[in-house]
Amino acid sequence: MRVKRLTLRNFRNYVNINIDFTANINIFVGLNAQGKTNLLEALYFSAMGRSHRTSTDLELIRWDQPAASIEVIFDRQDMENSLKIKLIANQNKEILYNSHPLPAREIVGSLNAILFSPEDLLLIKGAPALRRRFLDNEISQANPVYYRQLLNYNRMLGQRNNLLKKIREGKASTDLLHPWDEQLAGSAANITKKRLESVKKLTMLANLHHRKITGSRENLSVAYFLNGSNQDKVDDLSGWYHEQIKCQRKQDIMSGSTSIGPHRDDLIFSVNGKNMRNFGSQGQQRTGVLALKLAELEFIKSETGEYPILLLDDVMSELDAGRRSELLLFIRERVQTFITAADEQYFSEGKLGKFYRILSGTVT
Ligand code: ATP
Ligand code: MG
């Protein structure tokens, strides 16, 4: 996948810009608060239909302006595609994919992108939601049907939780739960099945990279943690969810929330059999996250036939020389990459890629 051109109008601190990219490494250099991350954010938004740092689209529109737009021209399987997103204050966004209207929930899977930012270094020690999002983003881009199943599941979950609260307050009857539980169990099983399959592939890919970075001294494995139960023991996921949801019903009514389902699951990363969350050193976590990100790129390549674009926000300064060169070695000539950096010390100018100087919303 190759982004050829990005056009922004009234997006964040950009009034009107047009940038043509190289197929290899694009480096955005500039002082703080000039607009480097804003460019990555525009590319990420084009891929995921949302920002990686805000859930309110309004923040993306240049102050005092009524609307913003992002347009990307990109090659996918050697075909040129265009994606145009218009953000209008207090209205739904409008998306045109190759000039045809596209519902916002269908944008995922058109332009594929993987973002690696310093927050990802929390992947191992941070909250389970981070790990679920990591996995869901990867599967969704390779398999847009999964993304829609996930949106449906989350909608059902919200509705079931509302109902649970009503039952708790005596405003609805418990019988009303049956149809929801039926649907929820089926949907939970589909999502979990896909996640289990993906984790199998991911653990293999991540371990290959991890062994390379550690000189074969360490083995990384990723396991899926299914609501506190051992995943291998569950053959009939749908039946299992039916049982579990039924067992938890009383408690769910009391708490007003659903305690069983893929929204509560987690990933466990281990090195040489030891859980990294508890025992991983800083360096081991960084190596682990880097291996996982590289595995993510390969996962999408193996599922879709093409590497996604890679967005690296300020990570070069977070990685040591060895890990940095492992990363650059992998992406060179393979993955179109967009890197932000406050200074150029990690890139000997001219050799690595194309430099763009970012100065308060201008690009040269
Ligand atoms: P750093 O090196 O600190 O990460 P950066 O170059 O990545 O900096 P960005 O996050 O891309 O910085 O841009 C931040 C700039 O964009 C800030 O100056 C901020 O005031 C401005 N900005 C953010 N949102 C808007 C908006 N809606 N309208 C106008 N300007 C905005
Ligand atoms: Mg930034």
Automatic annotation (TrEMBL):
A GO term from the CC aspect: cytoplasm
UniProt record similarity statement: Belongs to the RecF family.
A Pfam family per the record: SMC_N
Chain residues that bind ATP: G30, L31, N32, A33, Q34, G35, K36, T37
Superkingdom of this protein's organism: Bacteria
Keywords annotated in UniProt: ATP-binding, Cytoplasm, DNA damage, DNA repair, DNA replication, DNA-binding, Nucleotide-binding, SOS response
Biological process, per Gene Ontology: DNA replication; DNA synthesis involved in DNA repair; double-strand break repair; SOS response
Residues of the RecF/RecN/SMC N-terminal domain: 3-350
Main localization of the protein described in the UniProt heading: cytoplasm
Cross-referenced CDD domains: ABC_RecF (cd03242)
SUPFAM superfamilies attached to this UniProt entry: P-loop containing nucleoside triphosphate hydrolases
Function description: The RecF protein is involved in DNA metabolism; it is required for DNA replication and normal SOS inducibility. RecF binds preferentially to single-stranded, linear DNA. It also seems to bind ATP.
Compartments reported by the entry: Cytoplasm
Species of provenance: Sporomusa malonica
Record-linked HAMAP family: RecF
Ribosomal protein found in the keyword field: no
One Gene Ontology molecular-function label: ATP binding
Name under which the protein is recorded: DNA replication and repair protein RecF
InterPro entries in alphabetical order: DNA-binding_RecF, DNA-binding_RecF_CS, P-loop_NTPase, RecF/RecN/SMC_N, RecF_2
